[in-house]
Structure formats: structure tokens, C-alpha cells
Specification:
about 325 residues, alpha+beta, Arc Repressor Mutant, subunit A, 2 domains, five-stranded antiparallel β-sheet, 15 strands, about 40% helix, globular
Length: about 325
């Protein structure tokens, strides 16, 4: 990748400011005091890697849990609650609960937050010494084994987040939409279990913001943090695709397929299975099911415009190929 191509993907987080990594000595000094420090990323050779905002490293369970992000009808957020349990592996389980269900708009915001944490996240250690660090750590509400896990903090602005996810420049109105999504994400509690070990925390830590200047500070939970820094398996989401997606159905399917198909890979799936990703509950009538299938077909057409290969092998069964990453 050329220098020009790399720079074109970098979006400044705070106007007039650049990310300050600091010297190795300074990072070690901060780590010894338990202060938030810049996340360290290195390749297998040990050399530092250059990060940009071309992609988000999403934690698999946050992408694959059926019904965590789904298609919502008008008014459904007032009537329904979030209650999703996802079992995977031999003895692993993760539970998401909250006062409101999450939709495609919330997914888009989370992808943007995770993308920003890659190059600009600061590590929040388990026992911070500063007042700010202690406040943020308490706000994350870790339980059990999670109290020993680090989290990631990002200081940015609403306008920077809006650019990362492809929102238009609509000023305060757009910022309030983003703010509502962030608050819904913050209200989500997580219980993660692996064998006999359990962890409890919020999806996002308590965030702080200032509408007068648009500043925003947020922290990611330990599961996402481990995926972002590369200590755990992660799912790569291309942010240029996220910014180009228009329909919520395509956005939800895109995230789920990214979790299932690696870049350059392909797989077969039925339209009925795709429907369960967006609508966990069975259709109430045949007419409703026909409408759902039509929306799925429209979403797959939009996936083609992103460079994905979609071929109908048989009635309602598709082979889906993901583009290779250069």
C-alpha cells in the first residue's frame, strides 16, 4: 500500500490534534502508575505496525450472537428488551441484556467505535492510580475475572465518529442520533462464561461527552479490547464497506457474513437461515415471510455492489464470496 493510500484512510479524531503515542520510557512510566497508556501493536517480527481506520477488529461473539443486532419495527424499542444468550464452542456462553433491543444503527456505531480504538485506543489497566482512570474503571462495572482484564479508552469527537461510519454532516441533530446509540450500547450488560470462569461487565464503559464542543470519551469492554489489540481472535470489518451500505438489512447481513466468511473465502447459505439472523422470531404469516425474503434478496444485491460475489445456486440458496483484501 502506498503512503498516499494509507494516509487517505486516516481520519483525525480531534481537530488540530494527533494521536500521541509517547516514548517507550513514558509508556512504561505510565503503566507503572496504572495510568491509561497507548495500546501497543506489533507484528510477529516485533516491529510496530501502522494502523489506520480502514477496518475494525470486532470480537466474534459481538458479531455472531443471533438477535444481538436485528431488524426492528417502529416502536419496538419501547415494547421489547434485549435478552440474548449465545452458546459456542464446547462450554462457552455469553449473555447480553439491556432495557432496549439493538438495531442496525447501533451496530454501525459500535463498528465505528471499535475501528477508532485500533489506532487511537489507550489501555485502561485493572488498577489505575489516576482519578479519571479509577472513575472509568468503576464505570465499566467489571465482575469476577473481568476485574483483572484491561479495557480500551478513546478520546475523540462526535464529528470524527460520524466521518468514520459515513454519516453526513448534519450537525447537532446527527450527533444526538449517535448519542442515543452510544447510550443504548452502554446500557447493555454482559455475562461471559468459559468453563467454570465467569466475567461480567458493560458493553461500553460510562462515556463522557460535551455537546458544546462535540468531545466524546468512551471505553470498550475487555472482550473487545483483547480482539482489538490482537490477543484474541477477531473478525475484520472493512470500514469502506460499512460507509457504503445504505439499507439496514444489508448492514445486518454484512456483519454476520463477515463473521462467517474470511476475506477471499466463500460459503453457501439459504435465505431462510439469513432471515433468522435479522428476525429471530418466526414469521407470523406466509405474507410476512415473503416480505422478509424479498428484503434479504435486496440486501444481497447491495452486497454485490460492495464487491461481494452472490450466486443463487438453487431456489432460495446462495453461494456468497467475500472480496480479498489487498
Amino acid at each position: 500500500m502506498s503512503q498516499r493510500e494509507t494516509e487517505s484512510n486516516v481520519i483525525p479524531l480531534v481537530p488540530g490534534r494527533t494521536a500521541q503515542r509517547g516514548t517507550v520510557r513514558e509508556r512504561k512510566r505510565k503503566a507503572g502508575k496504572g495510568e491509561p497508556t497507548s495500546a501497543k501493536h506489533s507484528d510477529r517480527s516485533g516491529s510496530a505496525r501502522t494502523y489506520d481506520l480502514s477496518h475494525a477488529r470486532c470480537e466474534p461473539a459481538h458479531c455472531l450472537a443471533p438477535g444481538l443486532f436485528r431488524s426492528l419495527k417502529r416502536g419496538e424499542r419501547k415494547r421489547e428488551k434485549l435478552d440474548v444468550v449465545y452458546r459456542y464452542g464446547e462450554c462457552e456462553r455469553i449473555e447480553f441484556s439491556g432495557p432496549e433491543p439493538l438495531g442496525a444503527d447501533d451496530l454501525r456505531i459500535l463498528q465505528g467505535l471499535v475501528a477508532m480504538a485500533g489506532p487511537y485506543g489507550n489501555v485502561l489497566w485493572p488498577e489505575p492510580k489516576t482519578h479519571t482512570g479509577q472513575w472509568l474503571r468503576t464505570a465499566l462495572k467489571p465482575k469476577w475475572d473481568a476485574v483483572r482484564e484491561p479495557a480500551l479508552i478513546v478520546e475523540t469527537t462526535y464529528s470524527a465518529l460520524a466521518r468514520v461510519i459515513g454519516y453526513g454532516d448534519k450537525g447537532g441533530k446527527q450527533f444526538r442520533v449517535i448519542q442515543k446509540c452510544i447510550e443504548r450500547l452502554w446500557k447493555v450488560s454482559i455475562i461471559a462464561q468459559s468453563g467454570d470462569k465467569r466475567q461480567g461487565f458493560r458493553l461500553l464503559a460510562e462515556y463522557s461527552s460535551d455537546e458544546s464542543d462535540g468531545r466524546l470519551v468512551f471505553a470498550l469492554n475487555p472482550l473487545i479490547a483483547q480482539a482489538v489489540v490482537g490477543n484474541q481472535r477477531y473478525i475484520r470489518i472493512q470500514m469502506d464497506e460499512v460507509r457504503r451500505i445504505k439499507k439496514e438489512t444489508a448492514r445486518l447481513i454484512h456483519s454476520r457474513l463477515c463473521g462467517w466468511i474470511n476475506p477471499g473465502g466463500s460459503g453457501s447459505i439459504s435465505i431462510d437461515k439469513l432471515c433468522t439472523y435479522l428476525w429471530p422470531r418466526p414469521a407470523a404469516s406466509a405474507a410476512t415471510m415473503r416480505k422478509r425474503k424479498q428484503r434479504i434478496r435486496e440486501a444481497l444485491d447491495e452486497m454485490k455492489s460492495l464487491g461481494w460475489a452472490v450466486t443463487e445456486q438453487a431456489a432460495d440458496k446462495f453461494n456468497v464470496g467475500r472480496p480479498q483484501i489487498d
